[in-house]
Specification:
Oligomer: single chain
Shape: elongated
Number of domains: 1
Radius of gyration: 27 Å
Order of helices and strands: HHH
Distance between the termini: 60 Å
Helix content: over 70%
Number of helices: 3
Length: 124
């Protein structure tokens, strides 16, 4: 399976002017941020759309319009809640990962120091 990537001269010229953007392609945080923003915007549009439907079809058959408005609104709010939960969980997971890495590095540092001390004692 050969997935050859083609980059045009125009694209290369753009990235020569903006080299900081090249790193955004492989950055998971940037991709997650983009997806979260997109989902948030879709949720916002659904909430706004539900209100538009409510006022545009105010004279229509009430139970069907009300059900449609409620479903669209609830879907939009659910997307907002999903984004908020994801952001909070990502911050929590990132904090725990950082704490875990710091703990791991401290243990490794102390083990290395103990090994050096034991090695020196063995030479004496």
């Amino acid at each position: 399976m050969n997935n050859e990537v083609k980059v045009t001269e125009e694209e290369l010229a753009f990235y020569r002017k903006h080299p900081e953007l090249v790193h955004a392609f492989g950055d998971r945080a940037t991709i997650h941020r983009f997806v979260l923003i997109a989902v948030f915007v879709v949720g916002f549009l659904l909430v706004v759309g539900s209100k538009v439907v409510k006022y545009v079809y105010a004279d229509a058959y009430a139970p069907v319009v009300e059900l449609t408005v409620d479903l669209i609104f609830e879907l939009g709010v659910a997307l907002w809640g999903g984004v908020a939960t994801t952001v909070l969980l990502q911050d929590y997971v990132e904090k725990k990962h950082r704490e875990g890495r710091e703990y791991q590095q401290e243990v490794m540092r102390q083990l290395a120091n103990n090994q050096k001390e034991n090695h020196k004692e063995g030479e004496s």
